[in-house]
Design brief:
By secondary structure, the chain is α/β, with parallel strands linked by helices. The protein has helices spanning 11-22, 36-46, 62-72, 88-96, 108-119, 127-138, 147-150, 155-165, 170-177, 181-195, 200-209; strands at 2-7, 27-33, 50-54, 77-82, 100-103. The protein folds into 2 domains: 2-124, Rossmann fold (3-Layer(aba) Sandwich), CATH 3.40.50.2300; 144-209, Orthogonal Bundle (Arc Repressor Mutant, subunit A). It is built from 11 helices and 5 strands; from the N terminus they run βαβαβαβαβααααααα. It has a 5-stranded parallel β-sheet, with helices on both faces. β3 (50-54), α3 and β4 form a beta-alpha-beta unit.
């Protein structure tokens, strides 16, 4: 059973998510919070597998809350939810350690799939959303690059890295490259170690910002 904490300052939004998540046999809502500070406290107490985190909230916003949740409970995965497609807070939350980014008006099945995907260790980086975030926030401003490290990847590791940048899950990469999912996970571990990146989201940012893959 995957346990989920719902964080949003609107009670009606939390109620809607609770009904959706609770309808699934493999998912369970273990708690709710109306702001970031309450979310951090709830994570420490409930230790949920996944947090659905709104970005704009009183007391403590979703960015700072994500940072504190990741620091306090590294095993808990955070999915950032926002109303706006191009939201600087959303990208900041990804940098703070969130495992994914999703719009609140995404189809219900996408939200449910996202919960399962991040729980499995993958990241929710839908290609269309990622491109828009990268185009606005990464390409103009840039981030510290480690191109020399990225150049140390083997040919197969580079293929896996570019597949991650396209938003593919481990299972999808395995199918595309005709290898086992376990092999893909091994490659991902090597890529993270060689590039010094924190997670798959950071690998996506590195791929776009280094020019390994272009927006659109």
């Amino acid at each position: 059973m995957i346990t989920v904490l719902l964080v949003d300052d609107q009670a009606l939004v939390r109620a809607g998510f609770a009904m959706l998540v609770g309808s699934q046999p493999d998912l369970s809502v273990v708690g709710e919070a109306g702001d970031g500070l309450a979310a951090v406290r709830a994570v420490r107490t409930l230790q949920p597998d996944v947090v659905l985190m709104d970005v704009r909230m009183p007391t403590m916003d979703g960015v700072e809350a994500t940072r504190e949740v990741v620091a306090a409970a590294p095993e808990t995965k955070v999915i950032v939810l926002t109303t706006f497609d191009l939201d600087e807070y959303a990208f900041s939350a990804l940098q703070a350690g969130a495992s994914g980014f999703l719009l609140k008006d995404a189809p219900p099945e996408d939200l449910l799939d996202a919960i399962r995907v991040v729980h499995s260790g993958d990241a929710v980086v839908a290609p269309s959303t990622t491109r828009r975030l990268i185009e606005r926030y990464v390409v103009p401003a840039g981030i510290p690059l480690r191109r020399s490290v990225a150049d140390t990847l083997t040919e197969r590791e580079r293929e896996v890295w570019l597949a991650i940048a396209r938003g593919l899950t481990n299972a999808e990469i395995a199918g595309e490259l005709f290898v086992s999912e376990a092999t893909v996970k091994t490659h991902v571990g090597h890529i993270l170690a060689k590039t010094g990146m924190r997670d798959r989201v950071a690998l996506v940012v590195l791929a776009y910002d280094s020019g390994a893959i272009g927006p659109g």
